[in-house]
Amino acid sequence: MSCGYEGYEFGGGYIDSCCIDGFLWDLDSCDEPGGGLTHGGDFACPRCNTGAFLEQAIEDAESCGVSMRTPWCGAEQWERAVAKARKENQEGAEAFLASLKPFIAADWPDRQAVHEGRASWENTISRQWPWEQEAQEQIEQKLTRSRKEPMIFLPSEIERAAFMARSALNPERAEK
Ligand SMILES: [Zn+2]
Predict the structure, then answer these.
(1) How far apart are the first and last CA of the chain?
(2) Is residue 86's pLDDT more than 80?
(3) What residues have a C-beta under 5 A from ligand 1, the ion?
(4) Which of 25, 63, 107, 122 could form a disulfide with 40 if both were Cys (CB 3.0 to 4.6 A apart)?
(5) pLDDT at residue 164 above 90?
């Protein structure tokens, strides 16, 4: 049984994977037209086996390395897996994430620097999912918003401020 999922999991650069019974198989591993697939069966399908798919991403979360000249780290892979799971099966992904216990993933202090070759992929830091920084950014966004709000003056407030300023300069006149 296939759920109809097809993807790019086997590195061909084109659609080269298909789902059979919840696991992905390499479409290029067919020896004869119409024959069975001989390579695959290890990766869980993000669409119909979403929990197992995310579980597999966690297994590699504490690792990092270079694959096809591209550095990778567990934290980044995990974020991609979550995005993919949400795209393929929003409900299943959210259910899995809601029951997920915090875990440690390897990340880079500066991801962009690693991808641009300015920092080594071997220098990783440990992060705990859910990322604290994400929560921090949300807090900062709120703070930025609340900081900005008082800066928007209503015309009446400007008038009042001008009145107060005049009062300070000339208290007698302002009393009248
Ligand atoms: Zn599937």
Answers:
(1) 88
(2) yes
(3) 3, 5, 19, 45, 47-48
(4) 25
(5) no
